[in-house]
């Protein structure tokens, strides 16, 4: 099958390579010329496990090509998948201008029947908007079908999720389009649900909003645990054993980040408003998360009263492990808040540098955990990177000015932190301690 994927971002690149892996002829289009050049040389533009070898293999076998010539790519393809960004506007509405631009471009080059798949996360009714663009631009209605096919992959496991996800949702009323889509998804090990386009569009927002709600709920429970000497980890385990609840997404911490939960929860509230649906639960989820991601700052304010002049080590910047993505990461909000209070920031994340340096030019970027914690008053774990699980806490504590540890992802056992010489340890609902030993405070 000849497939054109528009947008070589996290979703587009993964989708394009997955189709190429199954020997489809894939053309992946991006308007960013640098991205296109880099990808054609076999250099990944994002960090994602397994991506680099697959990219190299697909280029070598000529199953994939990257270009910025959208018109040729469309006219050569039977299936066109739109995977461009859909960011949130300040009023929480969804900016679908990239989807509309792509649809306008597609409309110019439809010369025979093509299936247009909307894979980007879009507000309900967008399939109709895209269809109307084609009709208004004079495209013959027999020459296209627009299908809603939202994506559920997670960053860090994107390739595996794309190929073996829990489900695939196809929103279409056209048997012809469904036959073609079944062919391209045929080799994937995924359960397919067929529905109409509005249901497909809404399943995506419902899914992200419910997962985000689970996180905010468990974070509120964690905050209560901290006050009453209860343990959130055991509580989550106890909850998760109930199959109706499931153990997934019950890890308490400094809240959710990323390019999707923050934006899609807001979008759902905005979409609901248009139809007179309040979505009070989702509104609260957002509010709880906005407070939760600043939990370490709240803890530090309680601890020090005044943060000015303190050196804070930030361990981990990305919104989760296994990715180089810092979009809406809790670390950004923590750093911003601490800087506004006069703290000095040192940080460490092996996958992130350039983009962060543009956002925060006045903080210190370190190359190792030890360099980061050296002479810091406090260390905050913002991302549960593998190397933070394994770090030698004794050496960390020895190198710090005041060995205070805030474990924003609950990865360090309290007992171990106590034995390692920290004077204070705070988790998110997993306990805390304070050692009143003046020898510890250097
Ligand atoms: N990042 C993720 O894990 C997931 C994202 N999604 C959704 O998928 C969509 C894409 O997300 P990401 O891949 O993260 O975005 P991204 O920002 O990483 O990639 C979008 C790409 O589209 C390109 N682009 C924009 N307009 C274009 C045009 N007219 N022609 C050619 N290229 C164009 C941009 O240059 C960029 O490279 C969003 O709607 C998002 O909500 C859905 C599931 C997972
Ligand atoms: O629409 C999207 O873009 C994607 O959004 C999420 O995927 P992703 O953002 O890549 O990452 P998640 O693993 O869901 O984590 C999101 C955030 O929630 C946080 N989280 C997750 C789970 C948990 O128990 N606790 C918790 O705080 C993570 O630290 C992270 O900041 C969804 O899981 C995907 O199904 C969806 O396709």
Automatic annotation (TrEMBL):
This protein's pathway reads: Nucleotide-sugar biosynthesis; UDP-alpha-D-glucuronate biosynthesis; UDP-alpha-D-glucuronate from UDP-alpha-D-glucose: step 1/1
For this UniProt entry, the molecular function terms from Gene Ontology, in alphabetical order, are: NAD binding; UDP-glucose 6-dehydrogenase activity
Active site located where?
260
Query: Which reaction is catalysed here?
Result: UDP-alpha-D-glucose + 2 NAD(+) + H2O = UDP-alpha-D-glucuronate + 2 NADH + 3 H(+)
From which organism does this entry originate? Vallitalea longa
UniProt EC number? 1.1.1.22
Specify the superkingdom: Bacteria
Q: Where does NAD(+) bind?
A: 30, 35, 86, 121, 155, 263, 327
UniProtKB keywords: NAD, Oxidoreductase
Instruction: Please state which protein family the record places this protein in.
Output: Belongs to the UDP-glucose/GDP-mannose dehydrogenase family.
Domain UDP-glucose/GDP-mannose dehydrogenase C-terminal residue range list? 313-414
GO biological process terms, alphabetically, are:
polysaccharide biosynthetic process
User: Which protein is depicted?
Assistant: UDP-glucose 6-dehydrogenase
Q: Which gene encodes it?
A: nsd
Entries under InterPro entries matching the protein: 6-PGluconate_DH-like_C_sf, NAD(P)-bd_dom_sf, UDP-Glc/GDP-Man, UDP-Glc/GDP-Man_DH_C, UDP-Glc/GDP-Man_DH_C_sf, UDP-Glc/GDP-Man_DH_dimer, UDP-Glc/GDP-Man_DH_N, UDPglc_DH_bac
**Quick one: which residues bind substrate?**
152-155, 204, 249-253, 257, 320
Task: Give the taxonomic lineage as stored in the record.
Answer: Bacteria, Bacillati, Bacillota, Clostridia, Lachnospirales
